[in-house]
Structures are given as structure tokens and as C-alpha cells.
């Protein structure tokens, strides 16, 4: 078997240990000629025809379900005596194939097969146990952890009891809160939230941020007359005071704390504090910009000092720079790399200093001071009119990479809505839907512990729409679709690039982004992009749905959120010649029982399994191929063996066709449920896998391409053009899916960039580049001569996906075997004789069983389950290595393991040429 994209091997001495490849890459199937010669190994479950099981041995540790009773202690108990369980604790090195982790045993001659086997097995067991244990260190396998649920909503009418006495049209007015509340009631959101009682912040709490003198001054305003209030207000920048201002500011601060405490205690999952006055401009000894106390800053200090959190992220998307928050934390002596503390991120209108508060400190050059360096991140916009695309880009490219590196334990949002369309101050164009997306992206952080505190927002309509959309996300509603166009504008890209350039020194996550020194000039960028010459011209896309109207009701979470589809009959597909084959029935039975153990299964809506119909299979596969697979039903083992060996790495039994129809049908059933709105998303626990299956051929354990079929089916069922994204995170390339869709503009696959999925509102499509959002990722670095376009890691984009329709196939669940260290390779002859005949019969008995070749003397011999001549030869000669022509892997007798080594390459290349008639794909 040949992996299309093999990872590189790690060299140790003259040996190469394979990195953690799935078995699929390394396993050699040790096939017998007949099914009655199946040998059972300890722990294995052999599936006989008809699904009958035999289980005479106690289970092998690496085959046990990962139940709480089978955690590391039990694995340790399963280890051979005298074997240490290996490094423990969180500081233990991650299991990987790094050279030097384990010393290989010294080279030696084979001491005879039984002894070598015993030792090999012991060694491998030890390795497997240690690896598995390492791997489990960081997994919390507790059966069922309580998942915090409920979205807290804090509001108190009392907070509307102050206004500007001398300016009736002052934008920061009580109607802001009352209209939000009305809207949330109207949208049915209030009843879905858990009410959180507003409370006053204590003096002690205020003092976490503000000085005693300032607190005393504010307290004294409660008794002041209008004249005095106005006079005092005028000594500050952009504030008014009302006799109730102090009380309300304390109530606002306390209310944020109330929500934060409930989220930190796990009583609530997340929350929103509807408060005024706002807070993010307030400084230690100053009120400013309508703000008296800095609620969010107080909450961050509270979380750290009273609740013991180490890392708090503050995201400030109010259109104004939260200079107050920045000043409070930028030189915080408690901020340091050793004791990570508060990370402040603000995206705001700056206009090169022309926008309030007109501070050079609001530019991206302000990064924090002293030990706080890098913990202040400013993204200033230098133009009004920033759109959803600009804000989404800011998050995907700057905030999220840093936030994932920082790993906050709590996210506080200074949630102003004055960047929303129609706000008189911000003059930005952010849609309500965008606030849902911004909120949603943050929910991936801090275990979802996200608390929004209202800041600005002065257009009552866009304020209320924005709050409603953000709250919808907190409640788990799918994000409303964004209206195009979706490309960040040049000015936004320039701001983002500059901030990336500045912060790359603090955050390695930003370092792969090459920032152009000349990115300010469109010309420079275009020129450099032109130089690559590799951007194919875009294909015109039909521009399907009309843009979602603002009046359309926002999508809400269906009652049953996640569908689950599974059918036991899929286990009837099995490998009758090799029960150790990695694609085995237990993959899905285990997955399902694990879902049950975790209590996840009963939280899903069970969807009906079904068989894919003939017309459905024809959506991706040729009639000839479907007929050919159908004809395998009821074949005898020998014929099935032949049928399977027509293809690359495929086995079949009499039930394979049905299982494959079932696997595909189950995924289609999931599509049906999602498209009908019955569930929001779904998981299909299916096998055989599908993504290698070609229109005309089975491949790589896959018979029908379930995911490709599902994509076509979705388009058919929808009855309208539907853009489908297929994300394939299987370690192997999904060649089948790619081949099926590479000329279909309606399906985007994640390993290639095709046409833009974002039609313009006007009805025509984007010119190059195909994915405007990637533009700034591969900003050409004009210092290097060849502007290679490098793909970033895709994870930030993933953050926007989870609550939308999504399907997960179980293709990635191959058993992963531990590393093998082979000390026996020095004896391998470097060059195999030309013209190895892979069809040659066994040189000992002339049988046509599976062919192996000894890599020392190049005799062709039958496998150990045929007449065992390969085993006998190894035993007698002490030659340690044989090469299987079935899938071009090498087996070492002494290690009892499959080995890859550069010296085997000539043999593999030759064997591949002989077996498949073409060249081995690049290997190493
Ligand atoms: N000519 C918040 O949005 N504008 N505060 C001052 C002076 C101050 C806004 C204009 C705006 C403060 C929380
Ligand atoms: Zn503001």
C-alpha cells in the first residue's frame, strides 16, 4: 500500500522509525488463501460470515474500549513485568517519532523465530502501552462531564434611571437599554436565557481597578445638583453625570461580575450583561467617553485575583478604542510571560488619529509596556466603512491565532455596537449577522466561557439587531449567513498587515504570515501575485440565492441539535483473510459505544439508517462500477479475493456491497435531516470509509464515496444551487473526492482553491484571487525573490463552521500503531536485481499464494498463512526482512513489525512499477 502523501520518517542511526502512521500505511495484510485458515490473535474479534463472533482470548490492551475502567492504570497493569510505564505527568514528551526517544536494541542475528517473536511482541507491547499512555495523558476520559449549559442574561430596569440632564439628545440614553430589551423579548431570546440578578459592585471590587480618591469622588456625585454635576463633567472628556450615575455605574460593574461568576462556577455556559453606562474608556482615576467605571477591567482583575484565573482575554469590538482598558493593563506588573495575565485586543476606528480619543496609544504600535509587551493588541482602522469582511478578517488573521496561542480561561467582550451599519459615530458597515459570527468565533475559546458586556452603540435599530444576533450565538443558534461581498478592503488589509508585522515578534502563531513591507501599495501586491503566474482564471459561478433579507427571521437552533446515524449491519463488511486489518468492524462499534459511555449518544437525535439507492450511487459512480460491486454479493472467498485485488488496498466479502450502500445511505440520511431543518448538524458513524473511492474504482478500503455522494445529493435535494464545502481531515488525501469534484465549481474541497464561493451582491463574481480572504495570508514578501504562496493552517476558518450544517465521517479512525525501531536493516542489500517478478510463484512449493520476497537474497516465497515458506526461510537463514508485494511494506522478523527504510526504496520502486505499472508516488 502506498500512502499518497507519506510523512517523512525520522532517522535513527542507520534505521528509520516510521512516524505515527496509521496502520493503513504500514500494515501488510497477511492473507490466507482460504477463510478457514484465519488465525486468531489474542484479543481480536473475528467476524464470521453472518456477523457471528468468536472471542476466546482476553482482549489485547490496545483493543479495549476506552472506558474509565480502562484508563492508564489498567494499561500499566497490562504491561509485562519489570517494564516501567514510561514518563508520566503533563510534562511528559508528546508521543512522536522523534529520534532518540528510545534506543533501539543492538543489532544481532535472529535467535530463532519463536524467541524473536516473543521478544518482539513484548517490546511492541511495551511500546504500545507507553505510547498509548502518553497519548492518554492529556485526555480527560471521565465518563460524563457536566457540560455547563444556559446563557445568562443580566438586565435591570434600574440601569435606565439616569440620562443627560442638559442634553436631551445625548446619544448615551436610557432608550438604548429599553429598546434592546424589547427586541430581545420580541425575538423570543429572553425566555431562552437564564436571568441573572443585577447587583452592585462592592467598593472593594471597584478598587481592583480604580483609586480610592476617584471612587470617593464618584460617590460624592450622588448628592450633587445639576449645576455641580455639569461643572464636574466638563472637567473630563465626553462624560455627563446624573445623580443616579454613580449608583448605575456600580450596578453595571456588579452585574458584569455576577455573570462572570456564574460562568466561572459552571452554573452558566456564557452570558450577556445589558448595562449602561459603558465602561471601556474609564481609567484608574478618570471617567471618560460616557464611562465611569471600567466594568470589564474590574471583571478581568476579579477573575484573576479572586477566582484564580491565569489568563483572561478581553476582546473590544466597540468602534472606539478602549484606551481605559489598555491603560489599566498595559503596564500591569502582574502581566508577564511567566504569569500570563490579561490580553487586551481592540479593533477600532482610528483615522490615523483623527477619530476620538485621538491618541497615538490607539495605534497598533502600542503593544503594552515592560512585561506587558505583546499583551496589548490594537487594530486601528484608518477609514470608515469597514465591512463584515474586514472584521471577519481581523478575527481570523490576527485575533484568533493569538487567542489560540494564549489559551484564555475566560473571554470578556467589550461589546459595543457602534461599528454597526447606521451608527452615527462609527460610520462602519458591520451587519447584525456579523456580530453573530464574531461571537461565535470566540465561543471556541476558553471552553466557551464568554461574557459579553454592552459598551457603545447609538443607532437604536442596529444596536438592537446586533445585540440580538450576538445573543443568538451565545444561545447556540446558527449564525445568520453573511451578505457578500466578503473581501477585506485594501485599507483593512493594510491595518491588519501592520499589526501582524508588529505582533509577530510576540506571537509565534503570527510568524508564518509574511507581511509585505509594501503592502500599502496595491500595485506592489498585484505585481507580486502576478509573478506567481499560478493563479488560474476564475470560472463564472452562478450566483444562487438572493441575499438574505434583513427582514428574514434569523435562523434558530432546531429542537434536536445533532443527529446521529449508525447501523450495526455495517460491521458485516470484514476482511476474512486478515482480521487485524485496520479497517475493521470494531471501528464503528467502538466509536458508538464510546459515544454511549460519554452520554453523547442520548443527546443526539437518532436518524434512520438506509441503503443508498442505485440512482443515488450513480451521482458519483459509473453504472459499470456499481454493477461490478453489486455482483460481488454472494461470491465465494476466492472470487471475492480476486475482486478485491483488482483495486488498490481493497478487500471485500459477501456483505461488502450492502455495507457500502448502507454507509453511503446513512450519510444521505444525515443530509436529509439537516437540509430539512430537523437537526442542525449530524454525525454518521459509518464504514467502509469512502473518500478514496473513485468514480470507477474502489480504493484504499473505500467502496462508495459516501461524502462525495452526500454533496451531490444535497445539491439535488435542495432543488436549488447549493454551495457545499467538503472538509477532509483524514490523514490521507481524499483522492476520490478530489477527482469527482475537481471540475465541479459547486463543490469546494479544502485541499485546493477553486472558484470563489462568494458571489457579489450585484450578481457577478469575484475576479482573482479566488479566495479573497486568503489574500493577506500569502501577502508576498517582497524581500524574498520568489513569492511562494503558502497555505496557512486552516484552523481559524474552522472556528466559523461548527453550528452550521456539518457532517463528520469516521474515516479518520484508523488504529494507529506505535513506532517500530528496526536495528536489522544494515544487512539489507541496497539494490534489488532488475526484473523482480511479482507474479512469480513461491520458489519452494510453486504455489500462487501471496508473494513475498526476501530482501537479502531475493527469493520469492509464499506467505506465512499459505505454506509458510517465507517464515521457514527467515527462520533458517536469519535473514530479517521480507517485502510484501501486496502493498509494498517490509516486515522484519526480529522486530515483528513493518519497517520503512531508505534502503528499501529501490526495491519498493521496482515492485511498485511491476505491480501497478506506474511510478511510486513521491515517498519521503
Ligand atoms: N467631539 C462609547 O462608545 N465622543 N463611548 C467624543 C468629541 C466620545 C463613546 C466626541 C465617544 C465616546 C462607549
Ligand atoms: Zn464606542
From TrEMBL:
Q: What is this protein called?
A: Protein deacetylase HDAC6
Which stretches are tagged as biased composition: Acidic residues?
520-529
Instruction: List, separated by semicolons, the cofactors it needs.
Output: Zn(2+)
Where does the record place the region Disordered? 77-124, 518-538
Give the GO terms filed under biological process for this record: epigenetic regulation of gene expression; mitochondrion localization; negative regulation of cellular component organization; positive regulation of cellular component organization; regulation of microtubule-based process; response to stress
Pathway membership of this protein? Protein modification; protein ubiquitination
* Keyword annotations of the record: Actin-binding, Cell projection, Chromatin regulator, Cytoplasm, Cytoskeleton, Hydrolase, Metal-binding, Methylation, Nucleus, Phosphoprotein, Repeat, Repressor, Transcription, Transcription regulation, Transferase, Ubl conjugation, Ubl conjugation pathway, Zinc, Zinc-finger
Q: Catalyses which reaction? A: N(6)-acetyl-L-lysyl-[protein] + H2O = L-lysyl-[protein] + acetate; N(6)-acetyl-L-lysyl-[alpha-tubulin] + H2O = L-lysyl-[alpha-tubulin] + acetate
Q: Where in the cell is it found?
A: Cell projection, Axon; Cell projection, Dendrite; Cytoplasm, Cytoskeleton, Cilium basal body; Cytoplasm, Cytoskeleton, Microtubule organizing center, Centrosome
